[in-house]
Amino acid sequence: MRMTPVAMALFVALVSTAPVGAAADLSGPWRLEFQGSSSTAVYQADCVWEQEGPRLSGSCTSGFESIVTVRGRSDDSGVTFQFTSGIDSGTVMTFTGRLNDGATVIEGRWRFVDPQGQGGGGAFTATKR
Fold it and tell me: Of 46, 107, 121, 129, whose CB count within 10 A is highest?
């Protein structure tokens, strides 16, 4: 079956306006689990994020920390977010990872730097709830 010129034009118009590589919306509740490279302890936090375009914002809370403000970004290259933690909130923690195809799991690496310049990091997983 051959397409008529009108059908072909309609098909091209529909395909060219379809979103290509549109970033998934990360808004909603997430469970964050992270572990240091030299530690067996797994830290957990419950997060709620909002996304507007590529910008990510929200908060996380856990048993070892009060509510912390989260800022980040999500685009085709991945997801990055950070918050400050620790005594007097001087330690900056940065998480960088990849979102799975189902837009329900982010896996990657995290790192921290404290006010004295000491740092470390490890692996993390965030799961949409």
Answer: 121
